[in-house]
Design brief:
This protein has 2 domains: 213 residues, no CATH class; 118 residues, no CATH class. Helix content is 28%, strand content 17%. It is globular, with a radius of gyration of 22 Å. The protein starts with 22 loop residues before the first strand and ends in a 12-residue tail after the last helix. 39% of the residues are buried. The chain binds zinc ion. Zinc ion binds next to helix 1.
Length: 395
Amino acid sequence: MSDSNYKCIYCNTLKDSIEFSLEHIFPSALGGKVITDNFFKTRNVCRECNNKLGLGADGLFLKNFFIKNSTSMDFLGYIDLENPKYTIPFIYLGLNEHIKHPEYTYCDYWLWQGGGRVYHFHNNYSDKFNAFAGGNPIGQKDKRRAGEAYLVSSTNNLVWIKKLLFSFKEHFKYAKRYSVNINIQNENDLLDVASDKENEIIKNILAIANDEQKNQIVIQLGFEIRFLSKVALALGCNLFGDDYYRSSYAQMLRKVIWEEDHTKLENYQHQMSSFFSDQNNPLKQVSEIIAWKGGHTIVLFPIDNKLLLLLYISGNKNPIILTITDEFNKFNNTLTSEFPNGCVWILIPQRQIFKGKYGFPEYLAYKMGDKSLMEDLSEIENLYVEFENLPPFVI
Ligand SMILES: [Zn+2]
């Protein structure tokens, strides 16, 4: 943004340049760090907003997203079982209130789709942000604050156990890490050694580990709208700068971002369609074709007087739809004039693959069978392993 380099687009406040850094618009849990295209990065968000909204908007979105999407196993098809660098993320399933720890008050319950679960004890709870309260162990560098994480494996296949242990280490990087039921040589500092105190916790976990009833799930509805508005506003500012920022639609998005009372969110005309409803989808007829199996498909699509961003997450056929602007004819940008019929990116975080942008019609032609023009996409397709061809979880 030309005349407001140091104005934060979320809090609308002028701040010193040191308050800003290059930020990913997509959260890292959705593969934001793998995205190289500058279109998905911003320098116009202050550190304070980034921290606040990372918990309040992103965290709540991700929690809801993963709960609703936890049945999809497609992403396992892109896991490289040989390379420990590629891990499978844990999915947050809420607070567990049935296992007590003498030093920690809260216990987050996490699921690993390759076959396993984690009980994470900590004291970092806040009513507002319980999505990632201590539940974002990645951010807790202080060992004591990072708490203790206990891993229960439900696979006995060494191939998956290795992947599980590396994923456990990656996700709970700073916490003390204990295994409840895996007996394996402790290579690469993957696990800590349990003393009597931890063995007592392990005993309690074993007693209830398979009892789904005892794992409470907390869902707060409506908060995804804040996250989607935040993404739409940042992308709109990247594309069209100040003219866009001053538009009434952009200013409305800014209010939505900070609305903490989710019952009030419906009063805004935000034009976002959230989880997997196919309402308002102008690409309904071709959605089956668009979604990339096992990865995320991002489509920037102008229609009528709107500019939309469609997110087909984890190969889901029903996209999340963000309206970046409903006055598209007022703005100009080289990206949208270079791709007047829309453009597409493919993101496969579990393999650290990011591809694009492709013209939308060319991409559709590829997906409908014309493989000649996009060899790089064919290569990605060939990496995919169908579920029935993956090693079994139980042998
Ligand atoms: Zn700010």
